[in-house]
Structures are given as structure tokens and as C-alpha cells.
Amino acid sequence: MTNVEKKTLLHCLLYWEKNTPSGVYLTQPYGDGVVKNFTWQQVGDEVRRVATYIQSLNLPPKSNIALLGRNSAHWIMADLAIWMAGHVTVPLYPTLNGETAEYIFEHSEAKALIVGKMDGKGDGWNEIKGVIPKDLPVIATPLSPAMLADKPQWIDIVAKNEPLKNPKMPELDDISTIVYTSGSTGRPKGVLHSFRTMIVITSGMEEIWGFSNQDRMLSYLPLAHVAERAAVETMSLYFGFHVFFSEGLETFQKDLQRAQPTIFFSVPRLWTKFFLGVSEKMPMKKQKLLFSLPILGKIVKKKILSQLGMDKVRTALTGSAPLPPHIIEWYRNLGLELLDVYGMSENFAYSHACKPNEVRVGYVGSVNPGVDHRIADNGEIQVKSPAQMIGYFKMPEKMAEEMTDDGYFKTGDRGEIDEKGRLRITGRVKELFKTSKGKYVAPAPIENKLNNHPKIEVVCATGSGEPQPFALLMLSLDAMKELQRGELDKETLAAEFKELLKSVNETLEDHERMDYVVVVKDQWTMENGFLTPTMKIKRNIIEDRYLANAEKWLGMKQRVIWE
Question: pTM for this one?
Fold first, then answer.
């Protein structure tokens, strides 16, 4: 395989289309037990035909085309078709609220829209559909909403258009995509990436984890986010491995069993749910006994991994937030070493990773090949990556603000580096708040400690201008259901949270210790603007909603308050 053959991700498609035409690339469930495999030849053919149709729209060269939908085979094919037609992809998170989607449509100057898998259940379709510009050309894929039946359909486009025979292939430094950030600190920014910054990560990833065309992955984290796009789309196109898609939360376990992934990328919330699910069926006391038995212990551990659909996993990745040490140790005991990864939209998620057998709990690993890092005088992590963005779309002044004079990106995260070069994230530079006593507090470490409780879904530690910090807790969906069914009562839960507050405060400095925690009645969601599409809290929105009550709550002199 030469560099010319795999110059860009589009070149990669043509390589596999030519060399392994009958190999299965994508596996897509359609519901009701219907599952379809797409070979490299079929993917190439559909991409070429849709590219022909996009070119027939006579859009200006290198137009920005929006791509909206949950993960699916057609998401990746649409991305490739946009590139083959000579345009730029603008992915939209399927969970966007209407206001943010409207802003991105306008700011990105989108000239067309491809809509994929959306149904209004758990995504933002009900809001987004109302803000799609009336004159915007729309293409509907097979899993798109029924209300788009009058729009040009992917299936019809494939049937009626000839495949594009000799597409003009992109150059490495052509813009490939505009990735909008999740907007945790305000309006989303459009991060410009080129075909070079998307593919340059492959050699480093291969060096760390040894990807090959024999691997399998299940794609379910948002492809609109650079992490999934880097791990799944980029790696599969370059190395030619098989990608499976999940039908939904209800069928996730079945989808996982179908895929039998060799590489599995997830977030702490799901790793924790797997752990809690197993522990509910097999209490920890019983686990410890069984695991201690030499022969039976191995059988039980293998059975647990098999039931999770992860007995073939050789590389297990986690990111976005820390996992409690006891959960990391539990997976390691099963034979699965969870490897943390760290990156940002601005460097296409190519920054840091834990290497096998070099994990230090609480650290996100050392720099990836070709990456350099340092800690600035104010404690901020600064990174220089070969996958660094080209800039921010229509925001040159922001690019200058976020970069140092010698080419390092200012991540906004605070951190420290150990003697082996491993990085630990200790909070956000701009999220420090000052109490009325004049002391600065970093909320993220406090939130991570509180978030380890299985009944808590999201935490916001706050208290600007207050004598001491406090925390806002949103219950998990399971905990709320248990309360509604009477299987759990507020007094019992309050006692648990009181003990949690005490144990966390014991690990904090005096000025960081919380006076109380508040269990909020609101649901913080992406749709109502409290969470970003990557499930991060929008701190300013939450504080605007609740901080005015702080004086009243303090006067109640209770450790656990139900809002």
C-alpha cells in the first residue's frame, strides 16, 4: 500500500473497492430483524451514484453540505459522496436543539443537507425539522424520517444516476470538513480540518494499537464528534476493517453480540452501566469468591465478557471523563485493560492515549506519536499535534487567540505531567470560580468524585460568591424510576448522598469543601440546552438557572436539599 494509493480517505475507498470488492465493509440493522451488509464494491457504487447526483445540483465548488443523523452505514457513505462530488462535509449532532441547529445552518453557509437516521425519539429531530431553511436542497437516506418522503430519496438517486467514473480526487490540504464544537462555553465554533489532518493520525494509531483489516468495531458514539470519526471512520477506511452499527439502546446488547468487536471505544457512563449490570446479577461478594478459584474463576470471567459481547476485544478504549479506580480494576481483573484517550475537536482527537501495560489510574496517558505537550505557567495544557486544525471557520481572530506564537493549541484544560510523561487533567482553566472568601475553586475534580455514585447522572459544582462551594445533582434515569415506583425513598437516598458528601469533602482542601448538595427536579438534556451534544454540562446555563437560590439553600442548613 503506497501513500499515493491511500493519499486521502477518499483514495482509501477506491483502494478497497478495487482490491477487496467482495469484502464486507458496513453492517446496518434496519429494525424488525432486518440486517444488511454492504461490501466495498457496493459502498463504492452507491457513493459514486450519489456523488453524480450532488454534482447535478450545480452547487458552487467546495460548497459546505450539512450531514444530520445518528450513526449508520449511510452516514459514512454520505460523507464519502460529499467528498467525491468535490464538497465539504458539515456534520450536525443528531441531538442538537433547534436554536443551535439554526445557527449552524446559517453560520456554515450550508448549500444542501443529507438527513440520515432520525426519529424524534431521543434525538433533536422534532426541533431541528422546524429550522431547516426552506430553500435548502435535502436528500433523505433509507432511515430518515417519514415526513421527508417528498424529498429526493437515496434509493431512487442510486437507481437513477450513473456512477461517477473518474472523480476529481482531493488534495491533502483541501478542506474536508467543518466540525462544530459542542458549545459548552457558548456558540459552537466551526473547526476546519483538511484531508491531511484526518488521515495523518493513522500511522500513530497503528503504532499504539496495531489496527488491521481483521479488526471489527461497533459504531454508536456520535460520528459528528471527532473521536468516533477518527476511531471508526478514519481507521476503517484506512485499514479496511468491518464496521457494525447499533440499532438503538434497546438492541445494544444484541448489536454488540453481532459485531463481536476486537476494538471497543466507549465512555465512562457505559463502562459503569456494564459493571453495575453484572454486579446486580452477581453480587461483588460472590464475584470475589468465584474469581479467586483458579479454573472456575477463568471460566466465569470469560462468560461475563462473552455475555457483554466483549470476549473478542483486544483493545478497550475510554474517554471524556475519569472512571472510578475500582471499576478500572474490575475490568482489568476480567482481562480487559481500559485505555484512556484524550483529544479535542481542534486536533481531531489525536493528542494523548494510554499505552497497554503503561496505565496509571487517573491519567489520560502520554502523547501520541508526533505530538508534543507542555504545561503553561497558568497550569494550562498546551498541545502541538500533526492533526491540528487549519483554523476556525469565519473566525480568524479566534484562531489567533487559541494558539501560541510557536504553534501550540491552548486546550483550556489544566493538568500536570508525571515523570514518565503521562498527563493528568485537573480541571478547566476558565471554569475556576471564586468564593466570597476570595478562594479559587476548580469544579471538575469535585464533579468527578461525586459522579462516581451510581444514582447520579450529572453533577455541577458551583458557588461563585458563596462562602463555600455546593453541588447540583441530577439523578440517573434508573434512580428516578425507582423513586416513582416506590422501590427507593428520598430519605434513604438523602442518607447516601450525605455520606457521599462527607467522604468527598474529606479528600478536598478546606476552601473546596461543599456546604451541601442539591438534588434538582429538572432534567438536564441536550434538547433544553443544559447539556452539550457530548453530554457535557453548559455551566453558564445551569448557573443562571440555579445560583439565585444559593442564599435560600444556605439558610436551610441542610446537607442534602431536594429542590
Answer: 0.86
